[in-house]
Predict the structure.
Amino acid sequence: MLIRPTDRGYEHPTPSEITPRALVENRRAWLARLATGAAGAALAGWAARDALAQAAPGQLAPLPAVKSTVAGATTMEKLTSYKDASSYNNFYEFGTDKSDPARLAGRLKTEPWSVQIDGLVKKPGRMALEDLMKLAPMEERIYRLRCVEGWSMVIPWVGYSLAELIRHVEPLGSARFVEFTTLADPATMPGVRSAVLDWPYVEGLRLDEAQHPLTLLAFGMYGEVLPKQNGAPLRLVVPWKYGFKSAKSLVRIRFTDRQPVTAWGRAAPQEYGFYSNVNPNVDHPRWSQATERRIGEDGLFAKKRKTLLFNGYEAQVASLYAGMDLKANF
Ligand code: MTE
């Protein structure tokens, strides 16, 4: 990722940013929505704890979800505020500044939307967003997201395990990897006219990583559909890997027997390995990965947090890499 001297990072909300009345009212609506949802009482208590932090402005369509029962799917850490999560973004198709996606992604046309499924799979074809959204029950998952640049957030995503879709399309026995391609539309995405990456943005996972229950196909966050800057209408969220593996605005999912060449791997193979598991013991060639800055608590005197192996999901995912040299396979 480009870290430039001009990129001084996140700016704090000032004390004068008093919560406007509309936001308070929307927050109440959001709490009511949660409390009456399928997860009922359990969610209500949890919602109260973080109500202030997670309130979405209520301008996007609600996306009700049940609380996930997948092991490790719900961290109890304090949520990043919706404002921070939707205004400090990496989505290079809209520019390389953190504020570019929120400013420019409004142009993205998310309807109609479909995803091409192809390669080594029994049921290839084009699936409409509506059908994808009906494939499995929507779950709320509260994941840490650790960017390779050294910052992190805690976000309540809405979606279901990618494994559900994989099961539905039935990969062939020869499939070993999954390649993800995202939208590259020069008419609506000013960033794809720049040479910062070889577009489209392509990512990849080993099939067993893609099938891991924590790997999420996300359609929403904070109880609503995804804001465009966060990868509407659907994206990947792979919580134990650096954020760039979590490809936004997916248009194609291809099953293959060869390790996909990813956009970041093509741009700088010595810096961005295929696995990109969060690992405090393996530095990026240009900076340490031992600590991170949690967005929202990054005052002048705020202590950095220690980055955890597999971003804290070691108990759930370490077995995927048994016997592998994690330094060689970075
Ligand atoms: N997906 C696409 N298509 N283009 C991008 O530039 N950036 C990645 C990832 N997915 C990116 C992308 C990076 S570097 C990060 S850290 C996360 O998106 C950020 O997700 P967020 O903005 O929702 O926090």
